[in-house]
Write a structure and sequence with these properties.
about 250 residues; two-stranded antiparallel ribbon; about 20% helix; 11-stranded antiparallel β-sheet
Length: about 250
């Protein structure tokens, strides 16, 4: 049975009509946050912007690129296995659901976890230290979302009542493609390649101004190359809602 707070997270998904087609271009420059580990490099080649960002000046592409970050190989194979070893016994007791109540997610199972073993606590602390400033209150529960090989997430913006300015997610077991689409200017899109064991950080403008989705297996293409989809488990940390949006 999914935790009550997990149901709130599901309720936060605002489903929109997908169908966004655009020509993508490679982005080679980005301002990444400073991190202590030399191995952590924000992989700018994993983000492609649509032609609209270059043809017009309505939307600031640099702002988006500062707020959507991707770190390849954030996890080692051992760290990925240790995380899966802890959550698999519970996930295996759940059935994949294909009829989400608001039609936002297809082929998924989910839970939240408050307590982790020592090794995984260290891994999640590394995520939190990079994603959130020290003075930002964070949600204690970690969201675990398991997508079946044919599962996908439709475009949505997480409700401000349930989480704050930043979402940080680990990608386990499979590569996938996340698509961002500006909520009001639909031609402004960004495809983001989320490789297995990578970390993405989505904050501020990327969090509030763009819908995000995980493409299904038939649409899973990045830079004109197919990105094979398999089962994907994401482990997601969030900060608390801003005071003005709390219930």
């Amino acid at each position: 049975m999914v935790l009550r707070s997990s149901l709130k997270l599901s309720a936060a998904l605002k489903s929109l009509n997908p169908k966004h087609v655009s020509k993508n271009l490679l982005i080679s420059e980005i301002n990444a946050p400073k991190v202590s580990e030399k191995s952590l490099v924000n992989k700018t080649e994993n983000i492609h912007l649509s032609q609209a960002f270059y043809n017009g000046k309505e939307i600031d592409k640099d702002k988006l690129l500062q707020d959507m970050l991707v770190y390849e190989d954030f996890l080692t194979e051992s760290e990925e296995k240790t995380l899966l070893d802890e959550i698999e016994p519970y996930l295996k007791r759940l059935r994949y659901e294909f009829d989400h109540w608001d039609d936002a997610i297809h082929g998924y199972r989910e839970t939240e976890r408050l307590h982790w073993n020592e090794d995984n606590s260290k891994t999640l602390k590394k995520v939190r230290d990079i994603a959130f400033p020290p003075d930002i209150a964070q949600l204690a529960h970690v969201h675990v979302l398991d997508l079946a090989p044919k599962g996908f997430i439709k475009p949505h913006i997480d409700a401000v009542r349930f989480c704050g300015t930043t979402i940080a997610g680990l990608s386990l077991l499979s590569d996938s493609v996340m698509r961002l689409v500006h909520d009001k200017k639909k031609l402004y899109t960004a495809d983001v390649l989320l490789k297995r064991r990578s970390l993405y950080i989505m904050r501020n403008s990327a969090r509030f101004d763009y819908t995000h989705e995980i493409l299904n297996e038939k649409e899973s293409v990045f830079n004109k190359k197919e990105v094979p989809r398999d089962r994907r488990v994401s482990i997601i940390c969030r900060n608390e809602p801003l005071p003005e949006f709390r219930d």
